[in-house]
Specification:
The complex is a heterodimer. By secondary structure, chain A is an alpha+beta fold. Chain A is built from four helices and eleven strands; from the N terminus they run βββββαβββααβββα. Chain A has two domains: about 5-65, no CATH class; about 70-160, 2-Layer Sandwich (Alpha-Beta Plaits). In chain A, about 20% of the residues lie in helices and about 40% in strands. Chain A is elongated, with a radius of gyration of 20 Å. The termini of chain A are far apart. The model of chain A has no long low-confidence stretch (mean pLDDT about 80). The chains are: A alpha+beta, B mainly alpha. The interface of A and B includes residues 11, 14, 27 and 49 of A.
Amino acid sequence: MFPMALRSLNLPGVGTKYEFETDKGDTVAIFFTKKGSIQMYTLQKGCQTSSAAEMTPVEARRLGNILTGAIIEADQESVEIAFSALADLRITVHTYIIPHTIARKTIEDLRIRAKTGATVIAVCRQDKNIINPPPSFVFETGDAVLVIGETDQLKLFEREIMVD
Amino acid sequence: MEGIILALFICLLLALVSKYLTIPAIPFYIIAGVILGKTGLGIVAPDQISSFFSDMGLIFLLFFVGLGLKVDKISENRSELLTSGIIDLNVNMIIGFVAAYLLGFSLVESLIVAAAFYISSTAMAVTSLIENRKLMMRESEPIIWLMVFEDLVLIIVLALLSAGNENLLFFVAKILLGLALLYALAHYGKEFLVSILERDDELPVLFTFIAVVVTASFALSLGVPDTLMVIALGAAFATTDPDAFEQQARPFKDVFMVIFFVFFGITTDLSGSVSLSVIAIICTLAVVSKLISGVLTGLALNGSARSGLEIWANTIGRGEFSIALAALYGSPAVAATIAIMVIVTSLVGSFAAKYSISLSRRFSGSGRRHGPPFHRARAGH
């Protein structure tokens, strides 16, 4: 299924290594070190020395999002997933930061689902994740919310809810 | 008691400096100990508390050695592991032993110096590979496997030294019995161990600490060396969830090891027990002999002396294991020699590893003329 062979290896004391060679002959290696940092090396075909970048887990996930083709706009990210088996259903997951205008209101007060059809599936508040918040959930300024829906529903969410 | 606190506080300051300069901290701890202790100002003297904490440091270090030994992992890379391991072992053990013996150490002392001379610091090698962004080099995996091989040799050396005058057969039988017992506990109690480690209260850390300490004291009361049994405990636990155990045991290891190093420096008498020229010769040879073994390994594995230079640069530093051998079995003269050897090689090693790339470039300019790689037979001595 994959054009390249992905090798993974456990290195005692260091961590886990993943390595693969691209079609054009370049090599990419990723090391998840035991200290928690992630190092990515790239080695151009025919070159002797690789170049490296060290990342925190958060940075690595961000890089992963970019590589999978998701769009990143400052601190708002979105991923669109197309399900070809379901008549080309396109579902988007988008993050938003709650502005002070809708702080201290609940999901019910804002009538998010009735107005837009989109659903809030998770809220991140000070590094804590609240999955599937109940309708009585009260937003606070600065909460990062993860909203799922079709593209049109999310546009409605931006127009109707975020500026409320 | 105040002595430990003063020593630890100074170590903290030195740790900050060493991290800032990205130089290994171990030589700093030893130097701090030397200055505070017998040889230097004589402000801090060892007492019961400090020797208890030092023992804990050693025991947790060896527990980590055990956790790193996963039998299935080792067997995967056998040929590379063996080739580089055997070259490294022979070259360095022989040079270390002959040099120590000719310089006037007794037979047993020479064996201890040779073992400390041979065994590179795993912590320094791994840190150097990560911090200098060298993990992707083709030499990095051989270096990591070399460290595993050295750990295995360390266990054999520890067993030989601790057997002493005992009947060897009886001694081995006792150790195997202890090992079998620990493996059986880990095997049949695996679900229980995993369920403890998964809890998010204080039980995982409490359990890990007590398991290590109880094993050590139980071993002593049975007349088996605690060092070996703690390694065995680590190896047995490695069959369950080694990462979780490492996570729980790391804080103990980190703090107790610092106490271990600084009090090793405090108790070591550098004044007069060995002549300075003896120490200087050992230190120079310690750097040179790893160069010889590194180049031979590079030629054997990759057919390139330049690659050997890279292996050398990352394995010059002797550290925790050399000090452990000195603390456990060294006479005052041996301990002083090893202390200075660790300080010198770890500093030289850290600079060599940082500048190895520019070093090897200069080297390869003239090195190319060597032509086709030396063949393996040459390295097999």
